[in-house]
Amino acid sequence: AAAIAAVTGYSPSPSPMNFKDTPTGELFNANVFSKAVMKQRLPKPVFATLSRTIDAGEKLDCSTADAVASAMKDWAIEKGATHYAHVFYPLTGFTAEKHDSFLSPDGEGGALAEFSGKQLIQGEPDGSSFPTGGIRVTFEARGYTIWDVTSPAYIMENPNGTTLCIPTAFVSWTGEALDKKTPVLRSMQALNIQAQRILKLFGHTDGAMVSSTAGPEQEYFLVDRNFYFARPDLLNAGRTLMGAPPPKGQEFDDHYFGAIPDRVLAFMLESERELFKLGIPVKTRHNEVAPGQFEIAPMFEFANIATDHQQLLMTTLKRTAEKYGMACLMHEKPFAGVNGSGKHVNWSMGSATQGNLMDPGDTPHENAQFLLFCAAVIRGVHKFQGLLRAVVASASNDHRLGANEAPPAIISIFLGDQLTDVFEQIKGGGANSSIPKGTLTVGVDVLPPLPKDAGDRNRTSPFAFTGNRFEFRAVGSNQSIAGPLVAMNTIVADSLDYCATRLEEATGGDPSKLHGELQKLLTEIINEHGAVVFNGDGYSDAWHEEAEKRGLLNLKTTTDALPVLQSEEVKELFGKYAVLSERELSSRLDTYLEQYCNSISVEVKLTLEMARTMIFPAAIRYQNELASTCANLKMLGYEFDTDTLDTMTSLVKALQDSIAELEATLEEPETDDLLAEASNYCHVVLPAMGKVRSIADKLEAVVADDLWPLPTYQEMLFIK
Ligand code: ADP
Ligand code: MG
Fold first, then answer.
1. Ligand nearest the Cα atom of residue 462
2. Coiled coil: which residue ranges (predicted)?
3. Per-residue pLDDT at 3 exceeds 80
4. Are 341 and 331 in contact (CB under 8 A)?
5. 174-179 long-range CB contacts below 8 Å, 24 or more apart?
6. How far is the CA of 184 from the centre of ligand 1 (A)?
7. Which one of 3.30.43.10, 1.10.3470.10, 3.40.50.300, 1.20.120.1560 gives the CATH number of domain 595-717?
8. Does the C-beta of 282 come closer than 6 Å to ligand 1?
């Protein structure tokens, strides 16, 4: 109740952004050491050398680095920066920074503002507390951060000090990737190399770099900070571990695309302004399905930059929410029984000269090329469905995937009726199809128009073609998009490699044979891998049965999915394209298993603590009230219906039993086998935790409101 008073008493200080007072040109990229700034501040030859490094991946020499560092430092100091930080992306999925001052003693009692090329290019954070899955312990505890020239440096403004931030890769001294960024860059290179071979077959030999592009849609919840602080579970685990669903749930659906509350709008405006300044092109915002849930989506960018920007976006949303007295929840399932949060990662690939390669195009030749790229994705997703499930596996995302929620844990592709029909026509129909053979001739016929309309999309599919890109919807709201992008880039590189090899051999370099051979190849791919295409309802039980018949994997939990990372196919895939070595891969498996265990371990401790110190005391107080009322009334000769007291008494007993049971599950002997430990958490501990919760939730419905120690769903979800 005190919390409610705090909420209603809150009035945000409005600081609206408008494009009249601050032209978009001044706002966008204002805090970024962008190409425009570089061009203006760097000597011409330095800028030319740096541009070649950024665009074509040429090696950066030391004198260039010194010149860039000096210009960067001057620019940053003008913007108020006192420190610089190498920003890196450890396997936790979060962002880490090591701050250093620009100030160096000059040896004569004074100090100089200094920043050399070497300091720009390489740093040495004491990152020994970051998970590395054993890579570093066997050698030495040092890791290096190395400037990622392709991702621009930026200024982070903070009332407590402003910092120049330099995006970096984090590697061990043996050159092994300890982070999420390095494999993204490697996978983009692999994709480029294979895509060039395909483009060459189609007569495009300009060599313009093909990059993967990504546009992540971020879902999140907002709750008032007063509630947030009153809930140890939200505060420490990011989700509610108890709480009965509100009487007014999302079945009303009036929140979706409804009016955005004022405070939330003010928060969104300020977030957008901050993001613009950082060069993050946010575009859409709206309410989501659940009450208190919202979404923000930037325009797509190159995958590596989109990944860095996604991390920055999450940080910015959380920070800005605090300013408006709210907490921004990125957890995949903060509230049971209420829609969870995902991160839809829109993915495609393209080059400066060829544009978007997932765009069907208008001519038969363009159509043919598109169909090949599309078939490559279908083949990759089918071959590596387990990998795609593994890269989105986490304790928190398990509450979405495979639980009764979008999307299912079975990876399938939604192509839409029109495109499915096109592939059916190419292969000459299925066994029971009425479509005659060769109805559509690749390179001759024009594709029918494919819909780009959101209304036509199947929202239950984990992986959907949406007109000119694919949308991977199984990614969790709290996850880095790096893993999913690495997987996408690499499996498609593998497919393009396969297709290029086949076509190069079959055509023997004769372009006139291309379309005919392509038709054969597409037929083969759709026959072998078409089982992954599914346009129906992904939630239905019928699909689960059907998917099993089709031989598709249904990896329900993280413990089922993660071991895929050590399968022979996956090791070979990442090894072949030099994206992740076997050691790098196994270090990731260990890290993610450890994270899984840790996060559930935290939840268990919280559940026990809350059950013992909050729920149980509230329950016995109420039980006692009922009991003394009963005794008093009886003494006076009145009747008292003991139904509620009986319910309370049995619930209190059940609560005590469930607490004891949960505690007992933790008495498992220590083991070195991470997978066994994870499996125990999954199949033994989690169900026991669920039992405590279900009794606590029952108690919530009975115990007097003024005795209930936690803010309720009702209070938290309807943000004003
Ligand atoms: P939805 O209807 O799925 O909610 P949104 O408009 O919210 O769609 O988000 C679509 C996302 O897809 C945006 O981030 C957009 O920039 C991105 N997108 C569009 N084209 C591409 C592309 N070629 N590659 C990657 N992402 C793209
Ligand atoms: Mg979407």
1. 2
2. 645-672
3. no
4. yes
5. 174/139, 176/135, 176/581, 176/583, 176/584, 176/587, 177/580, 177/584, 178/90, 178/91, 178/127, 178/130, 178/132, 178/135, 178/136, 178/143, 179/88, 179/89, 179/90, 179/91
6. 20
7. 1.20.120.1560
8. no
Residue type, 720: K
Domain 31-179 belongs to what topology?
Ubiquitin-like (UB roll) (3.10.20)
Residue 667 is given by DSSP the state: T
Question: Global pTM?
Answer: 0.93
Rounded Cα distance between 505 and 486, Å, is 28
d(CA 622, CA 701): 12
Instruction: Please give the CATH topology (third level) of the domain spanning 188-594.
Output: Creatine Kinase; Chain A, domain 2 (3.30.590)
C-alpha 377 – ligand 1 centre gap (Å): 18
Cα–Cα distance, 577 to 526 (Å, whole number): 24
**CA–CA distance, 346 with 464 (Å, rounded to integer):** 9
Of 66, 91, 168, the C-alpha closest to 123 is: 168
| One-letter amino acid for residue 467 of the chain | G
Cβ neighbours of residue 225 closer than 8 Å, sequence gap 6 or more: 322, 325, 326, 327
Query: For residue 476, which of 542, 393, 409 has the smallest C-alpha distance?
Result: 393
Nearest to 349 by CA among 188, 547, 237: 188
User: pLDDT tens digit string along 458-488?
Assistant: 778 999 999 999 999 999 999 999 999 999 9
- For the chain, domain boundaries: 31-179, 188-594, 595-717
Interface pTM, i.e. ipTM: 0.96
Alpha-helix residue ranges (DSSP H) falling in 179-302: 181-201, 225-229, 232-237, 262-277
Residue 513, pLDDT above cutoff 80? yes
Rounded Cα distance between 255 and 674, Å, is 42
Cα(298) to centroid(ligand 1), Å? 8
Contact 543, 536 (CB under 8 A): yes
**Does the beta carbon of 218 sit less than 6 angstroms from any atom of ligand 1?**
no
